[in-house]
Amino acid sequence: MIEEKKESTKKESKRKKWNFATSPHEDFGKSIEDTYSAFLYWARVKQDRSQINVSKALRRLEAYADWMDDTGSDLIEPKLTSNSVKEAVQAWCMNASYSREGELLWWCDMSRVNVEKIKKEFPPEESLRAFVWYSHAIMYDENAQKNGMTFVYNVNKIKMIDSFTMMPAKLSTKLDRLTIGVLPVKMNTMYLFESPTWVTVFMKIIGFFMSKKMRERIVICKGWNKVEEMIGLDVTPENFGKVKGQLRLDVIEKKYF
């Protein structure tokens, strides 16, 4: 079906997206066939996991092909590898662990993000590369494929101006599209902690444009006790927010760094 899609695309400039030249699958020890499998796994029918909605998988794969192709040379000059993004990933303080139910937990703590370094030392392309690489690490993760993902975000009452100046708005929007509308990993829940008023208001506004299902996945938490109640301190990274997390070495760091 992919070859048919490729052959039916008349313009060479559009056809080349199916070559997946910017895909970093090799850095994860994967083949392009493994990438296809990730999309097929994502498109399993909820009522019967043995069945796959192939047309749904193909639509998401094409969105992925478009997104990756639009990055131009940002992901291949230099080649996207764990070594090339390690410093940026650490600056963004991204962590990953597994919940008790087996889903992947993606953690981001704004209280520990090195904002000054990101703004002054890293061009926007480095943040793009870091998030794209990390997204692929999740995409190829077996637990994430089987059980989906939950995003845990300590907003740290960040000011609006600081939030919108950490990276260009266009890049931020592009990354949102990658994680929400392109990546073949089911988003189970998004927990927000220390959410300032402007974020709460913003989420309510965009909520009008979301499906009920999507709105229910976004949970604004009022207290830190929710981390222990809903997730568990044993799978929470050390120094995350204002809780005493017990996880010292996360699953992605252990595997790739």
Question: Which word captures the global form?
Answer: globular
Class from secondary-structure proportions: alpha/beta
Indicate the low-confidence ranges by residue numbers.
none
End-to-end distance: 36 Å
Written description of the protein model:
This protein is of the alpha/beta class and 257 residues long. 49% of the residues lie in helices and 13% in strands. It is built from 14 helices and 7 strands. A hairpin with a 5-residue loop joins β3 and β4. α4 runs antiparallel to α10, α5 packs across α7 and α7 runs parallel beside α10. The longest helix is centred in the N-terminal third of the chain and has 16 residues. It starts with a helix and ends with a helix. The model has no long low-confidence stretch (mean pLDDT 92).
Labels describing this entry:
257 residues
